[in-house]
Amino acid sequence: MDREKIWFFVNGRRCEVEVDPNLTLAECLRNELYLAGVRVSCGAGECGACTVLLDGNPVFSCITLAAEAEGKNITTIEGLAEGGKLHPIQEAFIENHGMQCGFCTPGMILSAKALLDRNLNPTEGEVKEAIAGNLCRCGSYPKIIKSILSAAKSMRGD
Fold it and tell me: Among residues 121, 118, 136, which one has the least CA distance to residue 51?
């Protein structure tokens, strides 16, 4: 297969990479751009560990081809902190113990960010729906939901 040159913005930075046509976005981000916060677990779009934001929408990067992201904006967990300061969602996860082993945390946080970018006053049900594609093997869902609702409150300035 012929490699092709593609470009996209990752965490605000323009990146150009040469990829095989069948390379997944997760493999590209991890192996070509060394963004280890993109976790790969199931490889089948079932667990959400590989979730990234593509033009603001959560996608499973393990089943998205890198070429599908051409010209788009990608946000990974590494792109949330600004100037050495954690994003309010990241802070809320720490303060509310929203992670246990941490493997699902990047995907959970990015799914939460997509929700809170469109709705800063979500109900518990809306939070559950937003993270429905993300599995937490530790079963920390109550603390994850609490973290997201706490982040929403903080981001609203309450």
Answer: 136
153's CB contacts (< 8 A; 6+ apart) are none
Q: What is the homologous superfamily of the domain 88-156 according to CATH?
A: [2Fe-2S]-binding domain (1.10.150.120)
Nearest to 77 by CA among 27, 38, 26: 38
Tens of pLDDT, residue by residue over 61-108, are 999 999 999 999 999 999 999 999 999 999 999 999 999 999 999 999
Give the span between the Cα atoms of 106 and 135, in whole angstroms.
12
Q: What is the pLDDT of residues 18-38, one digit of tens each?
A: 999 999 999 999 999 999 999
What CATH superfamily is the domain 4-77? Answer: Beta-grasp domain (3.10.20.30)
Determine how β-strand 73-75 pairs with β-strand 4-10: parallel
